[in-house]
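ingest -> validate -> predict -> emit
validate: passed (alphabet ok, no gaps, 89 aa)
predict: started
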Amino acid sequence: MLERSSTSKPRDLNDLAAAIMGEATGETPAEEPDDRDPNAVALGWKGGARGVPARAASLIPERHREIAKKPPARWDYVDETTDPSGAPS
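emit:
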């Protein structure tokens, strides 16, 4: 069975060519240092972990139902009760 590479190949053709040449010649580009503040990164994760339950606890049941009935925006949902111009029928 073939083993898959643990690193993904670049999608850009020039970057892919450079990556292949680097692998073939043994020259790999230096990794870019992570210049983010580790404390800020940790707070970002904590904020999401704490914020979602807090928001859920603060919603009243009626508002929670309204939100739950709506489809997610990523579905690009079109309501059948409106015509394409957006005017209600």
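Residues 37-72 form one domain.
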